Amino acid sequence: MNVAPASILNKVIQPVFKNKRLYDFTKKMATSENFYSGVALSIIVVKHGIEAAIHAKASYNNKKVPEEQRNFLAIQDAVNYTLAIVLMITLGRFLGTKGKTYITEQNKTVSKLLKKLAPEVAKEVKTGIGVGLTLMGPILSHRIMTPLLSMPVSKVLKERFFPDIDVNNNQKPYINACEAWYSKVKGQKLNYSG
Amino acid sequence: MGVGTNLIVSSFRSLAHLTEVKSNIILKATSMTITPAILMSSPFVDNQKTKNYVAVKHVIGAILGLGINLLVSAPVTKALDNWAKAGTIPYLPGSKQLAALKLVTGGVAVALTIPPTVYLVNKILPGVMKYIYPENKNNTTETKEAIKPQLTQNKKNNRNWLA
Fold first, then answer.
1. Chain A contact for B129, CB < 8 A?
2. What is the pLDDT of residues A35-85, one digit of tens each?
3. Number of domains forming the structure of chain B
4. What is the pLDDT of residue B7?
5. Complex ipTM over 0.90
6. What per-residue confidence (pLDDT) applies to B70?
7. Which is more confidently placed, A86 or A99?
8. Smallest CA–CA separation between A69 and chain B, in Å?
9. Are the Cβ atoms of B53 and A151 closer than 8 angstroms?
10. H or E stretch at A77
Protein backbone atom coordinates (compact mmCIF):
# COMPACT_ATOMS: atom_id res chain seq x y z
CA MET A 1 0.00 0.00 0.00
CA ASN A 2 1.67 3.22 -1.14
CA VAL A 3 -0.49 6.15 -0.14
CA ALA A 4 2.07 8.94 0.24
CA PRO A 5 2.46 10.70 -3.13
CA ALA A 6 5.66 9.62 -4.86
CA SER A 7 6.52 13.21 -5.79
CA ILE A 8 6.63 14.26 -2.09
CA LEU A 9 8.85 11.30 -1.22
CA ASN A 10 11.15 12.01 -4.17
CA LYS A 11 11.49 15.75 -3.63
CA VAL A 12 11.48 16.03 0.18
CA ILE A 13 12.69 12.76 1.66
CA GLN A 14 15.05 11.36 -0.99
CA PRO A 15 17.80 14.01 -0.49
CA VAL A 16 17.94 13.05 3.22
CA PHE A 17 19.07 9.53 2.33
CA LYS A 18 21.94 10.85 0.21
CA ASN A 19 23.42 12.49 3.32
CA LYS A 20 27.06 11.47 3.90
CA ARG A 21 26.74 11.27 7.70
CA LEU A 22 23.68 9.02 7.49
CA TYR A 23 25.55 6.83 5.00
CA ASP A 24 28.54 6.49 7.34
CA PHE A 25 26.26 5.84 10.32
CA THR A 26 24.41 3.00 8.56
CA LYS A 27 27.70 1.61 7.26
CA LYS A 28 28.96 1.41 10.83
CA MET A 29 25.72 -0.33 11.81
CA ALA A 30 26.13 -2.85 8.97
CA THR A 31 29.73 -3.68 9.89
CA SER A 32 29.44 -3.79 13.69
CA GLU A 33 26.90 -6.20 15.20
CA ASN A 34 27.16 -4.53 18.63
CA PHE A 35 26.56 -1.06 17.19
CA TYR A 36 23.52 -2.36 15.26
CA SER A 37 21.93 -3.89 18.36
CA GLY A 38 22.84 -0.77 20.36
CA VAL A 39 20.98 1.44 17.87
CA ALA A 40 18.01 -0.97 17.80
CA LEU A 41 17.86 -0.94 21.61
CA SER A 42 18.13 2.86 21.73
CA ILE A 43 15.24 3.16 19.26
CA ILE A 44 13.06 0.90 21.46
CA VAL A 45 13.97 2.82 24.64
CA VAL A 46 13.62 6.32 23.14
CA LYS A 47 10.38 5.53 21.26
CA HIS A 48 8.65 3.94 24.28
CA GLY A 49 10.09 6.55 26.65
CA ILE A 50 8.65 9.39 24.54
CA GLU A 51 5.34 7.50 24.28
CA ALA A 52 5.19 6.95 28.06
CA ALA A 53 5.76 10.64 28.81
CA ILE A 54 3.45 12.09 26.13
CA HIS A 55 0.64 9.56 26.69
CA ALA A 56 0.72 9.96 30.49
CA LYS A 57 0.72 13.76 30.30
CA ALA A 58 -2.09 13.85 27.72
CA SER A 59 -4.20 11.38 29.73
CA TYR A 60 -3.66 13.34 32.95
CA ASN A 61 -4.77 16.58 31.26
CA ASN A 62 -7.74 15.09 29.40
CA LYS A 63 -10.54 16.83 31.32
CA LYS A 64 -13.24 15.07 29.29
CA VAL A 65 -12.44 11.78 31.05
CA PRO A 66 -13.82 11.31 34.60
CA GLU A 67 -11.22 12.05 37.29
CA GLU A 68 -10.95 8.51 38.65
CA GLN A 69 -10.42 6.99 35.20
CA ARG A 70 -8.15 9.86 34.13
CA ASN A 71 -5.70 9.32 36.97
CA PHE A 72 -5.63 5.58 36.41
CA LEU A 73 -5.14 6.03 32.66
CA ALA A 74 -2.18 8.37 33.22
CA ILE A 75 -0.51 5.93 35.61
CA GLN A 76 -1.33 2.97 33.36
CA ASP A 77 0.21 4.68 30.32
CA ALA A 78 3.45 5.38 32.15
CA VAL A 79 3.63 1.85 33.61
CA ASN A 80 2.64 0.20 30.32
CA TYR A 81 5.39 1.76 28.24
CA THR A 82 8.03 1.39 30.96
CA LEU A 83 7.22 -2.31 31.29
CA ALA A 84 7.23 -2.61 27.50
CA ILE A 85 10.78 -1.26 27.38
CA VAL A 86 12.00 -3.73 30.01
CA LEU A 87 10.18 -6.76 28.58
CA MET A 88 11.00 -6.03 24.94
CA ILE A 89 14.68 -5.65 25.72
CA THR A 90 14.81 -8.87 27.74
CA LEU A 91 12.20 -11.36 26.48
CA GLY A 92 11.48 -9.91 23.03
CA ARG A 93 15.09 -9.65 21.92
CA PHE A 94 16.03 -12.98 23.47
CA LEU A 95 13.35 -14.76 21.43
CA GLY A 96 14.32 -12.92 18.25
CA THR A 97 18.05 -13.63 18.48
CA LYS A 98 18.84 -16.68 20.66
CA GLY A 99 15.49 -18.43 20.11
CA LYS A 100 16.08 -19.25 16.44
CA THR A 101 19.51 -20.79 17.10
CA TYR A 102 18.12 -22.81 20.00
CA ILE A 103 15.12 -24.19 18.11
CA THR A 104 16.78 -24.92 14.76
CA GLU A 105 20.09 -26.26 16.06
CA GLN A 106 19.67 -27.51 19.62
CA ASN A 107 16.10 -28.83 19.65
CA LYS A 108 16.28 -32.50 18.70
CA THR A 109 12.78 -32.86 17.22
CA VAL A 110 13.15 -29.79 14.99
CA SER A 111 16.67 -30.73 13.86
CA LYS A 112 15.43 -34.24 12.99
CA LEU A 113 12.54 -32.76 11.00
CA LEU A 114 14.81 -30.31 9.18
CA LYS A 115 17.14 -33.15 8.14
CA LYS A 116 14.24 -34.98 6.50
CA LEU A 117 13.36 -31.96 4.33
CA ALA A 118 14.97 -30.90 1.05
CA PRO A 119 17.77 -28.34 1.68
CA GLU A 120 15.92 -25.40 0.09
CA VAL A 121 12.71 -26.24 1.99
CA ALA A 122 14.68 -26.60 5.24
CA LYS A 123 16.24 -23.19 4.64
CA GLU A 124 12.80 -21.69 4.11
CA VAL A 125 11.47 -23.34 7.27
CA LYS A 126 14.44 -21.99 9.24
CA THR A 127 13.72 -18.48 7.98
CA GLY A 128 10.05 -19.00 8.83
CA ILE A 129 10.94 -20.04 12.39
CA GLY A 130 13.08 -16.89 12.67
CA VAL A 131 10.25 -14.67 11.42
CA GLY A 132 7.75 -16.43 13.71
CA LEU A 133 9.99 -15.92 16.73
CA THR A 134 10.63 -12.29 15.78
CA LEU A 135 6.85 -11.82 15.76
CA MET A 136 6.39 -13.82 18.97
CA GLY A 137 8.85 -11.52 20.79
CA PRO A 138 6.73 -8.35 20.68
CA ILE A 139 3.46 -10.31 20.91
CA LEU A 140 4.52 -12.06 24.12
CA SER A 141 6.32 -9.14 25.71
CA HIS A 142 4.35 -6.09 24.57
CA ARG A 143 0.90 -7.55 23.95
CA ILE A 144 0.52 -10.24 26.62
CA MET A 145 3.01 -9.83 29.47
CA THR A 146 2.86 -6.03 29.62
CA PRO A 147 -0.96 -5.73 30.11
CA LEU A 148 -0.91 -8.66 32.55
CA LEU A 149 1.67 -6.94 34.74
CA SER A 150 0.68 -3.31 34.16
CA MET A 151 -2.78 -3.52 35.75
CA PRO A 152 -1.70 -4.59 39.28
CA VAL A 153 1.32 -2.27 39.19
CA SER A 154 -0.89 0.64 38.03
CA LYS A 155 -3.39 -0.09 40.80
CA VAL A 156 -0.70 0.04 43.46
CA LEU A 157 0.77 3.26 42.03
CA LYS A 158 -2.67 4.85 41.66
CA GLU A 159 -3.41 4.20 45.32
CA ARG A 160 -0.03 5.65 46.21
CA PHE A 161 -0.24 8.84 44.13
CA PHE A 162 -4.02 9.41 43.80
CA PRO A 163 -5.57 7.88 46.91
CA ASP A 164 -9.35 7.59 47.10
CA ILE A 165 -10.58 10.07 49.70
CA ASP A 166 -14.05 8.58 49.91
CA VAL A 167 -14.31 4.93 50.79
CA ASN A 168 -17.93 4.99 49.71
CA ASN A 169 -18.66 6.65 46.37
CA ASN A 170 -21.92 8.08 47.75
CA GLN A 171 -19.89 10.43 49.94
CA LYS A 172 -18.29 12.16 46.97
CA PRO A 173 -21.00 14.85 46.47
CA TYR A 174 -20.83 15.82 50.14
CA ILE A 175 -17.06 16.08 50.08
CA ASN A 176 -17.24 18.19 46.92
CA ALA A 177 -19.81 20.46 48.54
CA CYS A 178 -17.65 20.80 51.67
CA GLU A 179 -14.57 21.60 49.62
CA ALA A 180 -16.47 24.23 47.60
CA TRP A 181 -17.88 25.80 50.76
CA TYR A 182 -14.48 25.84 52.49
CA SER A 183 -12.72 27.48 49.55
CA LYS A 184 -15.55 30.06 49.34
CA VAL A 185 -15.35 30.98 53.03
CA LYS A 186 -11.61 30.68 53.62
CA GLY A 187 -10.45 31.59 50.12
CA GLN A 188 -8.12 28.58 49.91
CA LYS A 189 -8.29 24.86 49.12
CA LEU A 190 -9.10 22.43 51.93
CA ASN A 191 -5.86 20.78 53.03
CA TYR A 192 -6.46 17.21 54.19
CA SER A 193 -2.96 16.71 55.50
CA GLY A 194 -3.88 19.07 58.30
CA MET B 1 5.57 -37.08 6.80
CA GLY B 2 2.13 -36.89 8.39
CA VAL B 3 -0.56 -34.31 7.74
CA GLY B 4 0.25 -32.39 10.93
CA THR B 5 3.97 -32.14 10.13
CA ASN B 6 3.18 -31.04 6.58
CA LEU B 7 0.88 -28.37 7.93
CA ILE B 8 3.57 -27.06 10.32
CA VAL B 9 6.21 -27.06 7.56
CA SER B 10 3.95 -25.23 5.11
CA SER B 11 2.92 -22.64 7.73
CA PHE B 12 6.59 -21.91 8.53
CA ARG B 13 7.33 -21.68 4.79
CA SER B 14 4.55 -19.11 4.39
CA LEU B 15 5.88 -17.22 7.43
CA ALA B 16 9.23 -16.94 5.64
CA HIS B 17 7.56 -14.91 2.88
CA LEU B 18 5.76 -12.56 5.26
CA THR B 19 6.11 -8.91 4.25
CA GLU B 20 6.80 -6.11 6.70
CA VAL B 21 3.30 -4.66 6.27
CA LYS B 22 1.63 -8.04 6.86
CA SER B 23 3.68 -8.70 10.02
CA ASN B 24 2.75 -5.25 11.25
CA ILE B 25 -0.93 -6.01 10.64
CA ILE B 26 -0.56 -9.26 12.64
CA LEU B 27 1.07 -7.35 15.53
CA LYS B 28 -1.63 -4.69 15.53
CA ALA B 29 -4.36 -7.33 15.27
CA THR B 30 -3.09 -8.93 18.49
CA SER B 31 -2.97 -5.46 20.00
CA MET B 32 -6.64 -4.97 19.11
CA THR B 33 -7.85 -8.34 20.41
CA ILE B 34 -5.66 -10.13 22.95
CA THR B 35 -4.39 -7.06 24.84
CA PRO B 36 -7.81 -5.42 25.45
CA ALA B 37 -9.21 -8.80 26.50
CA ILE B 38 -6.42 -9.16 29.08
CA LEU B 39 -6.91 -5.57 30.27
CA MET B 40 -10.69 -5.91 30.57
CA SER B 41 -10.57 -9.18 32.47
CA SER B 42 -7.85 -8.16 34.91
CA PRO B 43 -8.82 -9.31 38.41
CA PHE B 44 -6.60 -6.70 40.09
CA VAL B 45 -8.82 -3.69 39.33
CA ASP B 46 -12.40 -3.79 40.65
CA ASN B 47 -13.90 -0.92 38.66
CA GLN B 48 -15.06 -2.31 35.31
CA LYS B 49 -15.49 1.20 33.88
CA THR B 50 -11.81 1.97 34.50
CA LYS B 51 -10.78 -1.30 32.86
CA ASN B 52 -12.98 -0.51 29.86
CA TYR B 53 -11.42 2.94 29.55
CA VAL B 54 -7.94 1.40 29.46
CA ALA B 55 -8.96 -1.29 26.96
CA VAL B 56 -10.80 1.10 24.61
CA LYS B 57 -7.86 3.49 24.69
CA HIS B 58 -5.60 0.62 23.72
CA VAL B 59 -7.83 -0.38 20.79
CA ILE B 60 -8.04 3.22 19.48
CA GLY B 61 -4.26 3.53 19.79
CA ALA B 62 -3.72 0.27 17.89
CA ILE B 63 -6.11 1.27 15.06
CA LEU B 64 -4.47 4.69 14.71
CA GLY B 65 -1.00 3.15 14.95
CA LEU B 66 -1.79 0.72 12.13
CA GLY B 67 -3.29 3.49 9.99
CA ILE B 68 -0.27 5.74 10.45
CA ASN B 69 2.08 2.85 9.80
CA LEU B 70 0.35 2.04 6.51
CA LEU B 71 0.23 5.70 5.50
CA VAL B 72 3.71 6.83 6.57
CA SER B 73 6.25 4.10 7.45
CA ALA B 74 5.31 1.50 4.81
CA PRO B 75 5.48 3.84 1.78
CA VAL B 76 8.85 5.21 2.95
CA THR B 77 10.27 1.68 3.38
CA LYS B 78 8.93 0.67 -0.04
CA ALA B 79 10.36 3.83 -1.60
CA LEU B 80 13.77 3.03 -0.05
CA ASP B 81 13.75 -0.38 -1.74
CA ASN B 82 12.77 1.15 -5.07
CA TRP B 83 15.41 3.88 -4.85
CA ALA B 84 18.08 1.32 -3.94
CA LYS B 85 17.08 -0.82 -6.95
CA ALA B 86 17.06 2.24 -9.25
CA GLY B 87 20.40 3.42 -7.87
CA THR B 88 19.13 6.85 -6.81
CA ILE B 89 20.48 6.35 -3.27
CA PRO B 90 23.95 4.92 -2.56
CA TYR B 91 22.71 1.70 -0.89
CA LEU B 92 22.78 -1.82 -2.34
CA PRO B 93 19.37 -3.52 -2.58
CA GLY B 94 18.98 -6.25 0.06
CA SER B 95 22.18 -5.21 1.84
CA LYS B 96 22.60 -5.03 5.60
CA GLN B 97 23.30 -1.31 5.29
CA LEU B 98 19.90 -0.79 3.67
CA ALA B 99 18.29 -2.79 6.49
CA ALA B 100 20.06 -0.50 8.97
CA LEU B 101 18.77 2.55 7.09
CA LYS B 102 15.24 1.12 7.19
CA LEU B 103 15.55 0.56 10.96
CA VAL B 104 16.66 4.15 11.59
CA THR B 105 14.08 5.61 9.20
CA GLY B 106 11.28 3.51 10.70
CA GLY B 107 12.25 4.60 14.22
CA VAL B 108 12.32 8.29 13.28
CA ALA B 109 9.04 8.02 11.32
CA VAL B 110 7.26 6.32 14.25
CA ALA B 111 8.67 8.83 16.76
CA LEU B 112 7.36 11.70 14.61
CA THR B 113 3.88 10.21 14.51
CA ILE B 114 3.58 9.82 18.31
CA PRO B 115 2.28 13.35 19.15
CA PRO B 116 -0.54 13.35 16.54
CA THR B 117 -1.52 9.81 17.57
CA VAL B 118 -1.69 10.80 21.24
CA TYR B 119 -3.74 13.89 20.36
CA LEU B 120 -6.20 11.84 18.29
CA VAL B 121 -6.50 9.07 20.92
CA ASN B 122 -7.38 11.62 23.60
CA LYS B 123 -9.88 13.33 21.28
CA ILE B 124 -11.62 10.10 20.25
CA LEU B 125 -11.62 8.28 23.64
CA PRO B 126 -14.19 10.49 25.50
CA GLY B 127 -16.56 10.30 22.53
CA VAL B 128 -16.36 6.52 22.32
CA MET B 129 -16.81 6.15 26.09
CA LYS B 130 -19.82 8.48 26.00
CA TYR B 131 -21.31 6.08 23.49
CA ILE B 132 -20.61 3.08 25.77
CA TYR B 133 -21.70 4.87 28.97
CA PRO B 134 -24.41 7.36 27.88
CA GLU B 135 -25.19 10.12 30.38
CA ASN B 136 -28.71 10.03 31.77
CA LYS B 137 -29.36 13.69 32.49
CA ASN B 138 -32.77 13.16 34.13
CA ASN B 139 -31.34 10.59 36.45
CA THR B 140 -28.53 12.97 37.45
CA THR B 141 -31.06 15.69 38.32
CA GLU B 142 -33.14 13.20 40.27
CA THR B 143 -30.10 12.09 42.20
CA LYS B 144 -29.16 15.67 42.97
CA GLU B 145 -32.68 16.39 44.22
CA ALA B 146 -32.69 13.24 46.33
CA ILE B 147 -29.45 14.05 48.11
CA LYS B 148 -30.19 17.77 48.58
CA PRO B 149 -31.48 17.52 52.20
CA GLN B 150 -28.50 15.40 53.20
CA LEU B 151 -26.17 17.81 51.45
CA THR B 152 -27.59 20.79 53.35
CA GLN B 153 -27.25 18.93 56.64
CA ASN B 154 -23.70 18.00 55.78
CA LYS B 155 -22.85 21.59 55.00
CA LYS B 156 -24.23 22.67 58.39
CA ASN B 157 -22.21 19.99 60.16
CA ASN B 158 -19.06 21.05 58.41
CA ARG B 159 -19.69 24.68 59.20
CA ASN B 160 -19.95 23.76 62.89
CA TRP B 161 -16.83 21.67 62.63
CA LEU B 162 -14.82 24.44 61.00
CA ALA B 163 -16.09 27.19 63.30
1. yes
2. 888 888 888 889 889 999 999 999 999 999 888 889 999 999 999 999 999
3. 1
4. 87
5. no
6. 84
7. A86
8. 5
9. no
10. helix A67-87
3-state helix, strand, coil in chain A (%, to 5): 85, 0, 15
The more confidently predicted of residues A81 and B72 is A81
**C-alpha to C-alpha distance for A182 and B103, rounded to whole angstroms:** 57
Q: Is residue B43 part of a domain?
A: yes
Instruction: Report CB contact under 8 Å: B101, A76.
Output: no
Contact residues, A window 6-65, toward B, CB-based 8 Å cutoff:
6, 9, 13-14, 17-18, 22-23, 25-27, 29-30, 36, 39-40, 43, 46-47, 50-51, 54-55, 58-59, 62, 64-65
Per the structure, the complete domain to which residue B93 belongs is given by: 21-135
Lowest mean pLDDT among A108-112, B78-82, B121-125: A108-112
Cα separation values, A114 from A104, A106, B40, Å:
8, 12, 41
Residue B75 has pLDDT above 60, yes or no: yes
- Model confidence at B155: pLDDT above 80: no
| Residue B103, domain member (yes or no) | yes
Do B75 and A3 make contact, defined as CB atoms within 8 angstroms?
yes
**Chain B residues with beta carbon closer than 8 angstroms to that of A135:** 15, 18, 23, 26-27
Whole-number Cα distances in Å, B146 to A140, A175, A179, B28, B141 = 50, 16, 20, 47, 9
Q: Are A178 and B154 in contact (CB under 8 A)?
A: yes
The more confident residue out of A1 and B129 is: B129
CA distance A49 to A16: 26
B60 domain residue, yes or no: yes
Q: Where are the domains of chain A?
A: 8-163
Its pTM stands at 0.75
A186-190: which pairs have CB atoms within 8 A and are 24 or more residues apart? none
* Domain contains B160: no
Report H helices in chain B: 3-16, 20-40, 48-68, 74-86, 96-132, 137-162
CA B20 to centroid of chain Cα atoms: 19
Distance from CA of A38 to the nearest CA of B (A): 12
